[in-house]
Write a structure and sequence with these properties.
With 117 residues, the chain is mainly β. The chain is built from one helix and nine strands; from the N terminus they run E-E-E-H-E-E-E-E-E-E. It has one domain: 2,3-Dihydroxybiphenyl 1,2-Dioxygenase, domain 1. It has a six-stranded mixed beta sheet with strand order 1-2-3-6-5-4, covered by helices on one side. A hairpin with a 5-residue loop joins strand 8 and strand 9. The chain is globular and about 40 Å long.
Length: 117
């Protein structure tokens, strides 16, 4: 995966912003142009979740384990969804993924994802 990165902070949490071509992250029609993505890496998604809850942020999807990260989704005041994640949790299965339309997807054993019926 090719990408460029920069660092900064969200509250007291250091983050890494990567912009590049995604090969692992699900990118159905709602992910912008095919192959383009923006993802924000943080040191500790659970700690950031607690900080966001205290501040009244809209948590769209709590931290969930995926092959690429332990990721959560928050929504800003304009309805934009931010995906923030820390390292994947080893030895934990991947959970359901929530797309931009609110549809849930589950991983399939052969690789890839299928919508929840």
């Amino acid at each position: 995966m090719s990408h460029s990165a920069g660092t900064g902070c969200i509250g007291q949490h250091r983050l890494l912003l990567c912009v590049g071509v995604a090969r692992e992250i699900p990118r159905q029609g709602d992910q912008g142009q095919a192959g383009a993505w923006v993802w924000i890496g943080v040191e500790d998604a659970d700690a950031l979740l607690q900080e966001y809850r205290r501040s009244g942020a809209r948590i769209r999807d709590a931290p969930t384990n995926y092959p690429w990260a332990y990721e959560m989704q928050v929504e800003d005041l304009d309805g934009n969804v931010l995906r923030l994640g820390s390292d994947s949790k080893e030895n934990e299965p991947a959970g359901e993924w929530l797309d931009m339309q609110g549809k849930r997807w589950v991983p399939i054993p052969e690789g890839g994802w299928r919508p929840v019926e």
